[in-house]
Amino acid sequence: MKIAGSRGKPIPSRLLGCPSFRMARVFQRNFYLPGSLLLACSGMLLAQQQQPPVKVNVLNVCTPSAEEQKEISSALARVPKQPLFSDDFEVARGRSSLAEAPGFLQAGQSAQMSDEPSVASWVRLRREFSLQAAFSTVQYSFSVDGKNMIETLVLHVRDPKDLVQLSIEDSASAVTSPAAMLGAASPASRIKLERFGKSSVVLAKCLGSELGPAPDQSAYEPLFAGASSILTNYRTLLNARKTVPEELAKVGTAATKSTTRHSAPKAEGTSKK
Predict the structure, then answer these.
(1) What is the pLDDT of residue 206?
(2) What is the pLDDT of residue 100?
(3) In 3-state terms, what secondary structure has residue 157?
(4) What pLDDT, on a 0 to 100 scale, did the predictor assign at position 77?
(5) CA distances to 150, 169, 257, 260 from 254, in Å
C-alpha cells in the first residue's frame, strides 16, 4: 500500500510506523483548526461592534436642575399673552376606545390611569399664530373618561433651533363635570419642553408613595404658577369654556344614537298556516 504525501509523492512504508512521522501528520492535519475558531470569534465580535449602542435618558421630573428650571422659565416667558391669530382654525371631537391614550390624551403623574381599555371623549381646538409670532400654532385638547379629565395646551415653535414645542397639562378626577373643571381654572400639573436633538425637560407635580413622602417642590411654585396663568389665558382666547362642553355633548349624543341603533331588537316574523 502506498500513501501519498502533501505533494503527491508516495510515502515509504518504513516511515509510516515512525512515531515522529505520525505526530507530524497529525499536527499537519489539525494545524488549521485554531485558525477557523479565530475567524468565527472575530466574526462575532465584528457583528457586536456593528450593532448601534442603546442610549437611555432618565428624566428627573420631580426635581429638575437649575439649568433646566431656567429653560422652563425662558420658554414660558416666550408665550404671547395677547396673540394675533390667523383666520385658520380647527375644531375636532371624537370618542376613542383605547388601551393606551394617544399623545394629546396622555395623563400626567397625578392622573389615575387604568390598565383596562377605557372609552374617552375628547375635543381638540387649534389656532394658527400670525407670521410675526415665535410660535406657529397652539393646540388645546380636553378629554374625559370614567375616571379622569385631562386638558393639554401645546404650542409649536415656528423656527425650532433648540425648543421644538411647549406643553402644559392639568388633570382632575371625573367626579365633576367638564364645565365645572373649566370654570374652576385647575392649576397646571405638568410642564414639558421638547428640544431639538436633546432629551426633553419635564417638571411635574409629584405625589408621595409607599417608597417615601412627596418631594419638596416649593422652589418650583413660580414655574407652576406661570404655566397655570398661560393655561387660564388660552382657555379664554380659544373660548374653551363654551366650546368644549358643547362639543362633548355632541359626542355623547352621537354615541347614544349609535348604541340605540345597534341594540334595537329585530322584529320577529309571523307565519300563517
Answers:
(1) 93
(2) 55
(3) strand
(4) 96
(5) 21, 28, 5, 10
User: Which residues, 6 or more positions from 228, have their beta carbon under 8 angstroms from its beta carbon?
Assistant: 170, 185, 187, 188
pTM over 0.85: no
Q: What is the C-alpha separation between 188 and 232, in angstroms, rounded?
A: 9
103 neighbors 200 (Cβ within 8 angstroms): no
Give the residue ranges of the chain where pLDDT is below 70: 1-59, 98-117, 254-273
Rounded to whole angstroms, the Cα distance separating 90 from 82 reads 19
Of the candidates 201, 111, 189, which has an alpha carbon nearest to the alpha carbon of residue 153? 189
- Residue 97 has what pLDDT? 82
Q: Write down the domain spans for the chain.
A: 66-208+216-260
In the prediction, which pLDDT does 249 show?
94
Inter-residue contact 91 to 122 (CB < 8 Å) = no
Report yes or no: 218 and 206 within 8 Å, Cβ to Cβ.
Answer: no
pLDDT at 105 (0 to 100): 46
CA distance 93 to 243: 11
